[in-house]
Amino acid sequence: LPVVFPGNKELEPLKYSKVAMAAAMSRQKVEGCIQGTTSLLSHCLVKGHNIALVLKEVGLLLIEGTMVRLNFYQDFLERLSGKENLEKVVFKVPHVLDMMASPVVPVASLSFSGRVITFP
């Protein structure tokens, strides 16, 4: 049964078998990887470590103390909105550039502290 949160938002269990099919891996391997990653992520958060979670082809989720920030890769945003639309948005709202990351820039340079544990 899904868990219901305020605002009628539901949390449903992750369907490991669907992830396994999409990743062409066994269900057991997928479940082990996901549970291992979430366990390590939880441990790091409890210890107060700064974390960068790399979301392949999407961007970086940076967690530093109580601050959480998602920086998107430019090519991801271009795929979503089209290059011309993204250029228009950046021209009208220049601070959108602050929300973008480059996959070739070191993750630590995007953090305030310069020190992060990076999850690939």
Question: Can you put this structure into words, describing what you see?
Answer:
It comes from Ibidorhyncha struthersii. Residues 11-83 form the CCDC81 HU domain. This is CCD81 protein. The protein is 38% helix and 24% strand. With 120 residues, it is α/β, with parallel strands linked by helices. The strands form 2 sheets. The chain has a 5-stranded mixed sheet. The chain is globular, with a radius of gyration of 17 Å.
Describe the structure in brief.
With 120 residues, this protein is an alpha/beta fold. It has helices spanning 16-23, 27-46, 74-81, 83-92; strands at residues 3-5, 9-11, 51-55, 59-64, 67-73, 100-101, 117-119.
Strand content: 15-25%
Query: How many domains, in number, for the residues?
Result: 2
Q: Helix/strand-derived class?
A: alpha/beta
Q: Please provide the ordered H/E string of secondary-structure elements.
A: EEHHEEEHHEE
List keywords for this structure.
120 residues, alpha/beta, 2 domains, 5-stranded mixed sheet, 38% helix, 24% strand, globular
Q: What is the strand and helix layout of this fold?
A:
Layout: E1 3-5, E2 9-11, H1 16-23, H2 27-46, E3 51-55, E4 59-64, E5 67-73, H3 74-81, H4 83-92, E6 100-101, E7 117-119
Parallel strand pairs: 3-7, 5-6
Antiparallel strand pairs: 1-2, 3-4, 4-5
Helix pairs in contact: 1-2, 3-4
